[in-house]
């Protein structure tokens, strides 16, 4: 399929115009009123696969497929993205068996809400190898290249076993010696065995074969603008990432990786 660089909304009527001061009707809408969706990976026991959870259920979603956490769009087992920038964050979730939810979070990965903005109090491993109560995320606000050529803003958030893919990806991006949003990367899922001999879905990230792995001029220009606005929004805390249901999603992922059941 030929790649298109048309970034406009398809099917826009010719009679619609954009005033000099920008589209009208959004004057009272602020960045904090916008939530960025996550690019999520479906596991065998993901709530999005369970009809018994109608608020989360996504018809047709299969294990190993990527999906949009907010609008439930299914992307398949392979997506191509242009990362805008990288940042760390931390979230301490209440045990899912005790109702779940977020106890504390540090959007910048540093300022702990429970420690009056000081260092995280729950980031250390236990004496017997118990994982930290607070989960660290590597986050990449990105532009997902849809099949029709449109670019959709999503956040790739990796933790635990995904950190290996994240660190490899970081090295891959640094080797380009160019803006992070100058490159296109292919994200796929693959089956990986756990200690119990079962398999779970893991992330794989590599250079894309589209346009030799480089953003086109139009894509790069568009990404440049998105980088500026989204980076500032994340930095100042007025743009947030979708976290609803993330506690259950991570619990299912951990159980899949460890070979246990909820």
Beginning-to-end CA distance, first to last residue: 42 Å
Strand-pairing-aware structural class: alpha+beta
The mean pLDDT is 82
Low-pLDDT sequence parts: 1-10
Shape: globular
For the secondary structure, the number of strands is 12
Reported for the largest beta sheet, the result is: 7 strands, antiparallel
Helix % is 10-25%
Radius of gyration over alpha carbons? 19 Å
> What percent of residues are in strands?
25-35%
Short summary:
This protein has 262 residues and is of the alpha+beta class. Helices cover 18% and strands 26% of the residues. The protein has helices at 162-174, 217-236, 246-258, and strands spanning 35-36, 39-41, 66-68, 74-76, 78-83, 87-93, 102-106, 134-145, 151-158, 185-193, 199-207, 240-241.
Structural account:
The chain is an alpha+beta fold and 262 residues long. It has one domain (34-254). It is 18% helix and 26% strand. Strands 5, 6, 7, 8, 9, 10 and 11 form a seven-stranded antiparallel beta sheet that branches. The chain has a three-stranded antiparallel beta sheet with strand order 2-3-4, with no helix packed on it. Strands 1-12 form a two-stranded parallel sheet. Strand 6 (87-93) and strand 7 (102-106) form a beta hairpin. It is globular and about 60 Å long. Mean pLDDT is 82; it is low at 1-10.
Task: Name the features.
262 residues; alpha+beta; three-stranded antiparallel sheet; 3 helices
Strands, helices and their partners?
Layout: E1 35-36, E2 39-41, E3 66-68, E4 74-76, E5 78-83, E6 87-93, E7 102-106, E8 134-145, E9 151-158, H1 162-174, E10 185-193, E11 199-207, H2 217-236, E12 240-241, H3 246-258
Parallel strand pairs: 1-12
Antiparallel strand pairs: 2-3, 3-4, 5-8, 5-10, 6-7, 6-8, 8-9, 10-11
